[in-house]
Amino acid sequence: METRQMDSPKSDPRMEGWLYLIRSNRFGLQYSRKRYFILEENCLKSFKSKPASEADAENPLRSATIDSCIRVTDNGRESFSRKVFFIFTLYNTSNHNDFLKLGASNPEEAASWIRSLQGVAMQQGSNSKRRWEPYIHPRLNDPKNAATRKRSVDWTSSATMHVDAMTSDVIAPSQWKIFGCKNGLRLFKEAKDNNSQTSNDFPAIMAVGVIEGACEAVFRTVMSLGLSRSEWDFCFYNGSVVEHLDGHTDIIHIQLCRDWLPWGMSRRDLLLRRYWRREDDGTYVILCHSVIHNKCPPQQGYVRAWLQSGGFVVSPLNQGKECVVKQMLSIDWKLWRSYLPKTSSRSMTIRMLCRVSALKELFRAKGGDQFPVEFLTGEVESIQASEEQTKHEGGLMEQQDDKKEDANSMINDAPVSCSSSLIGLNDASDEFYDVPEPLEDKRDTNPQEEPQLHPNLSTAANFVKKLHGLLDSNATRCYGSTLQKDSTFNTPCTWAASDPSLFLVRGRNYLKDNEKNKAKGTMMEMVGADWLQSDKREDDLASRPGGIVQKYAAKGGPEFFFVINIQVPGTSAYNLVLYYMTRTPLEESLLLERFVNGDDTFRNSRFKLIPYISKGSWLVKQSVGKKACLVGQALEVNYCRGKNYLELDIDVGSSTVARGVVNLVLGYLNSLIVEMAFLIQANSQDELPESLLGTCRLTHMDIAKSISVDSLNNS
């Protein structure tokens, strides 16, 4: 299915091609309708067939206006009527009743549409107050019928985190050291951390090779669990999807064959949580780690190995004609060490990594652009199970929906019925967009495999530790002081300011040479942090009485606070709150003053975060990345402006991709050192060079040490 992108004489982006409109019938069953779409200037048009002339292109079946209030989110893979689509959703940030769910037949088409739609929305910033125009048939677009139009709500606002896996905005040493070459692959081992106090019996090993094929084809081949996988994966015997969590995450079970294992060794299998995403530059990231799942207990005849971290990174090369494939594994094979040496585990891991070489030969033999059909069928069998039970009802309803749509297109003055609405027929259709949150008692990692942060303490040491805990619990706490500061970076569950020179920002001549330089300092000083737990969403924490912000407000001084409230939803909601302060008048920094007093559209287009995992497993480092992202373009941000502060309430749950990354990070949180930098993006010459607002370093955070908001309010 071809999608074309071209430039009009006015240099406005134009996209056209076939997409699938995703709808819901009155029973809540989702189905797809194939339509031809044209994106021209700021208008998205839909047709039942490809327009034969420019005159036909002026009479669309439906149309919508794209302005700066529109967000485009990546929902990943979904299945309807035994077809797999790559879904993306357009929604209005000021009115969640207005949304449009579309599907493409492959991830590259979806990425092209997302990029073009986001570009159009960004260009319409000057018209940010224009309201979203509902996506309706033009002959039914009568003002007197607008009041009768029914809509339902979609609360699944998932977005793509713009993190480039191949480039970095952080200056950091390489974590890999080459130790050999085999079958045309370079082999690397993870460099030892001199500051680490724990030993790893299963070090990470990575294989790197170049494949003559497009990234998308390699991605689909690696994701397939069908019979075609046996053409390159000599370790593979059988595979299935145990549970489909969302468009980017699933639980898979893989049984390994015995042929390549050492003599006398029992068969192994793996139960993995698999997460994937596509980067802006066309890189595909597939991350896996072992989990425990009640739907797939250990099976007779198999010993379940434990994958601590692993996955693939597929990056484009030579204008997309080739790609660089990296596979990393850190795996416990559950060997009996009494009769097998430690080197057996390492040699088995290296042999498994040689699958990249087999994948390379497969693409060389098949011409490079073919991918397995099983990706479109067998890969989603678990998703199809519920559809089979309602296939007959769904088919009847789809026929009725088509008849109603055709009938409505012939009516000029009749009120708009629910069936003609873009949103669908069921007022409760938003229930199909909910992504189940992981339960608190479910762990993504085996507790026995988690590294111990502290050695075993003696009885006296335990007594002292408990005494410190009692002192901490009895201490008076307020907003802005629940997380302790430790500039030595040695105490767990503490914060400190990171070195600004770790991060790269746009230089004075960035518009000419695209060069970034080391940051020389920060505009604000980090003065406090909170690590909070609540049973509901907590907004505008800076306004809470008794907090650090309100204490300074009562004094009437020149201090101004910039508060970043990162909200992690779930059965228990967590808030990481960072407090930055400056005594310099805002007027002395025009960009900061414009950001603080500007509108939300401007703020969403400028606020950037640079993440960096300075200590942690490869799995977490790869999932987070080291590339700056525009937070407001990826997540929903609520801005709270007070007398002496601006607070940004960032909802991580508004993005499927971001939520998957954060859930992964939470599983390894107490073994990580997380560093972040925040800044306002400079787009014009008078705004350059960029300056960091502030930095932060979080050392070995612990969910168990989060402070209850209720107890904080009572104190």
Automatic annotation (TrEMBL):
UniProt superkingdom: Eukaryota
Gene3D superfamilies linked: 3.30.530.20, Pleckstrin-homology domain (PH domain)/Phosphotyrosine-binding domain (PTB)
Molecular function GO labels: lipid binding
Keyword DNA damage: no
Keywords: Endoplasmic reticulum
Residues of the PH domain: 12-122
Annotated GO CC locations: endoplasmic reticulum
InterPro entries linked to this entry: EDR2-like, EDR2_C, PH-like_dom_sf, PH_domain, START-like_dom_sf, START_lipid-bd_dom
Region (Disordered): 433-454
Organism: Helianthus annuus (Common sunflower)
UniProt protein name: Pleckstrin domain, START domain, protein ENHANCED DISEASE RESISTANCE 2
Positions of the START domain: 155-348
SMART domains (alphabetical): PH (SM00233), START (SM00234)
Compartments where found: Endoplasmic reticulum
Pfam families membership: EDR2_C, PH, START
